[in-house]
Amino acid sequence: MELIAAAACCSVIVSILLKYFKTKGFDVFQMIAWNYLSASILCFYWFKTDITHVSLSQTPWWLIFILAVLLPSIFLCLAKSLQYAGILKTEIAQRLAVILSLLAAYFIFGEQFSHLKLIGVVLGIVAILAIIFGQATEHSNKSINLKSALFLFSVWAGYAIIDVLLKYSSSLGLQFAVTLNLTFIAAFVLSIIYLAVTQPHWQPKNIFMGLILGGLNFANIALYVKAHMVFKETPAIVFAGMNILVVILGVLSGVVLFKERLKGYTWLGLVSGIVAVLCLARAMM
Q: Which residue intervals define the domain EamA in the entry (predicted)?
């Protein structure tokens, strides 16, 4: 369980740092771009990736390119959601992206659903709708609330799309580490090209913090994969533990560090989300 707890902590720390540094004048996209440099280097050494013998004809470069565009884009949406909607709602929305992934598994990949899994999906949809609707109606400033609701929805849908694409890549027989490493490298190159065109002046503080974020971002993935290896016979433990811990830690950090408040719709979303994850975990056993 130590691996799951460490992975969850890394995930929440990334969100905390993004929200904190945004308020201190750091450039979010510069940090996001450089985060993929350290993530790709760490991925290469951690998984001992062999990228020197990649087949040019058999590698689906279109898939890697799409993921390389989506990853920094969804990271930016995550930063905006943290800014406008707060950390606790953003973490819940990010974790409940699994609901859309499950729906894709049913409609695209033909996975069969049990009654318990259906209950989990329905509760998850209720949770995300409650959070997004509550965010759009909580305060009087409609423009900001609609914007925050949009970013929450982007985080929810974006992480689900990335999850489905990664599942699709694994079904093609690609090695996970090679695909992940090439995606990180491509995301870094595309982000740097975008920055070179739009922001010619880069600040060392953004580069430094971006490299740190990349380390935490990769640690989250590496520890999560390692936990699945350790609990390979009971993946539901990893699934449930990761999602519930991130939601709880996200809520606690939002309340304690950023003085966010849980109101009616957020409470409904939080409780529904945790019960949904428990139902899905039980259904996977």
A: 3-132
Burial class (CB in 10 A: 0-12, 13-18, 19+), 246: buried
At 106-144, the pLDDT tens digits run 677 666 667 887 787 788 778 777 776 766 666 545 555
Percent helix, strand, coil in the chain (nearest 5)?
80, 0, 20
What DSSP character marks residue 285? -
pLDDT (tens digit per residue) in 75-96 = 889 888 888 888 877 877 877 7
Q: Is the pTM of this model over 0.85?
A: no
Kindly state the greatest CA–CA separation across the chain: 57
Q: Please name which of 190, 151, 242, 198 lies closest in space to residue 70, comparing C-alpha atoms.
A: 190
Q: Which two tokens stand for residue 269?
A: 């979303």
Each domain of the chain, given as residue ranges in start order, spans 1-283
Which residue shows structure tokens 């565009």?
A: 69
Contact in structure between 209 and 203 (CB atoms under 8 Å): no
Alpha helices by DSSP H, listed for 58-175, are 61-84, 87-95, 97-107, 115-137, 142-171
Nearest alpha carbon to residue 124 among 100, 91, 107, 153: 100
Q: What are phi and psi of 27, to 5 degrees?
A: -90, 115
